[in-house]
Fold each of these.
Amino acid sequence: SLLEGEKYSLSEWQALGYDRHSVFADPLFVDPDNGDYRLRPESPALRLGFESFDIRGAGLRPGFVEPWPATEPARHPAQPVSG
């Protein structure tokens, strides 16, 4: 592959036609060191249209016992199926 093993800055990567609308910036959390991941009013995420939400409603719900049972071991898509 042409890009294999190469490293690019965001601007170089965008010049190649990738991630043209991506933004690399500090999201400006209120106090991430103490678990407060609300966004400060000047956050670039808000300018991009991100809408804050109450994270207390995110994640697993009470009563969730186990993940879905696996019916067979996961395999890489290129791995042949043994039989």
Amino acid sequence: VFSGCCGFRCLVCLLVFFCGVVFVYVVRAPGRHLTPGEVPAFLRSRLAGYKIPAYVDVVDDLPRTGSNKVRKGDLRALPLPKRN
């Protein structure tokens, strides 16, 4: 998880390497405009090529528990991220 960088507050991988593709949801930092294309560009200098997401969706928030952890089971209800 990368947080506080490139205009996003939180980045969550939903399905890693599903058919060789990485899917991610990104929570936008308050007051920032972030496009899905900016995320892979930011991560290219920090991750191996096979870990760079092909599908990114920028969201305002993710489903959370009372202790502020991401509800991974509830992520399945979100629409699949869009291809970059």
